[in-house]
């Protein structure tokens, strides 16, 4: 019995355009609620949300049970964190702040078992192998791993061709917020210079035959990114949606009392 098929990877690589939502509440119960919304994928954010390996594992369990496609974003490119995320069962990883081809290669190798890489062997303890219930896990896991490099700085854009030249990098995600900050327009991802850099990068990523990702809650921004070729579209953030709905609801009644 082989490792689970990563349908998200294969759908994106086939060119499907799939929408998803960031999960930053760090709570399995709320993740389960989000899984009923109908997004094609849900991303458990370990970079900016208060997630740790245990909370991410708990969210993976409820999301997998519900049939949702999942992504884990780690706080950095630490090979030990990559190993832990893969061992708890993540198959699609988003790694932030990628700025060179060499860094991309190290990230790729951290996701693969020898001889392709240096991922440590711990499948006997790993949820990923269904705790060794998948006897062929070690020889079939590599093909189901999807590595998405997050490029979100001028240095990263300058290195983009080198990153895309690595066949082990399945896709590149452009981070408009951090790119805006790096370009001197912090808090303004829709600044014309920033948006054009985002759209140009997305065109280059798809021209290279890779998955192209972006995140924006602005429908017009998303449409422009989709038109530029983005097919891994983050269109929501649970925390932002929840906070906005709570504030709007309270305001509705406070005005009337
Ligand atoms: O730079 C970006 O944009 C992202 O990486 C997304 C942010 O991290 C996300 O938290 C929304 O601000």
Strand count, sense and closure of the main sheet?
8 strands, parallel, barrel
How many distinct helices? 12
CATH homologous superfamily title: Phosphoenolpyruvate-binding domains
| SS strand fraction | 15-25%
CATH architecture name: Alpha-Beta Barrel
CATH topology name, in short, is: TIM Barrel
Overall mean pLDDT:
97
The small molecules bound here are: ligand LXDSK4UY
Q: Low-confidence spans: pLDDT under 50, at least 5 residues?
A: none
Number of strands: 8
Strand order of the largest sheet: 1-2-3-4-5-6-7-8
Work out the helicity level.
40-55%
Structural class label: alpha/beta
By CATH reckoning, the class would read Alpha Beta
| Total tally of structural domains | 1
Please give the radius of gyration in angstroms: 18 Å
Q: List SSEs in N-to-C order.
A: HEHEHEHEHHEHHEHHEHEH
List the defining traits of the structure above.
257 residues; alpha/beta; TIM Barrel; 8-stranded parallel β-barrel; 12 helices; globular; binds the ligand O=C(O)C(=O)C[C@H](O)[C@@H](O)CO
Could you characterize what this model shows?
Strand 3, helix 4 and strand 4 form a beta-alpha-beta unit. This protein has 257 residues and is of the alpha/beta class. The relative contact order is 0.13. The chain has one domain: Phosphoenolpyruvate-binding domains (TIM Barrel, Alpha-Beta Barrel). The radius of gyration is 18 Å and the shape is globular. It starts with 6 loop residues before the first helix and ends with a helix. The site of ligand LXDSK4UY has 8 residues, from helix 9. Keywords: Lyase, Metal-binding. This is 2-keto-3-deoxy-L-rhamnonate aldolase. InterPro entries: Aldolase/citrate-lyase_domain, HpcH-HpaI_aldolase, Pyrv/PenolPyrv_kinase-like_dom, Pyrv_kinase-like_dom_sf.
């Amino acid at each position: 019995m082989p490792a689970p098929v990563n349908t998200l990877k294969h759908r994106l690589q086939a060119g499907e355009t799939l929408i998803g939502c960031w999960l930053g509440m760090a709570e399995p119960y709320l993740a389960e609620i989000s899984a009923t919304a109908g997004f094609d994928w849900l991303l458990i954010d370990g970079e900016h949300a208060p997630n740790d390996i245990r909370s991410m594992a708990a969210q993976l369990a409820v999301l997998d049970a519900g049939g949702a496609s999942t992504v884990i974003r780690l706080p950095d490119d630490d090979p030990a964190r990559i190993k832990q995320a893969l061992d708890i069962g993540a198959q699609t990883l988003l790694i932030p702040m990628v700025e060179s081809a060499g860094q991309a290669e190290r990230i790729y190798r951290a996701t693969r078992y020898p001889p392709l890489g240096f991922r440590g062997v711990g499948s006997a303890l790993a949820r990923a192998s269904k705790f060794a219930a998948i006897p062929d896990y070690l020889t079939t896991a590599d093909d189901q791993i999807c590595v998405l490099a997050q490029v979100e700085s001028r240095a990263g854009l300058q290195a983009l061709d080198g990153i895309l030249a690595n066949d082990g990098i399945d896709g590149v995600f452009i981070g408009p917020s951090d790119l805006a900050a790096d370009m001197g327009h912090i808090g303004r991802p829709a600044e014309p210079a920033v948006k054009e850099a985002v759209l140009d990068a997305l065109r280059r990523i798809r021209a290279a035959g890779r998955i192209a990702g972006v995140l924006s809650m602005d429908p017009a921004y998303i449409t422009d990114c989709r038109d530029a070729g983005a097919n891994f579209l983050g269109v929501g953030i649970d925390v932002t949606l929840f906070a906005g709905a709570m504030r709007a609801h309270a305001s509705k009644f406070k005005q009337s009392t």
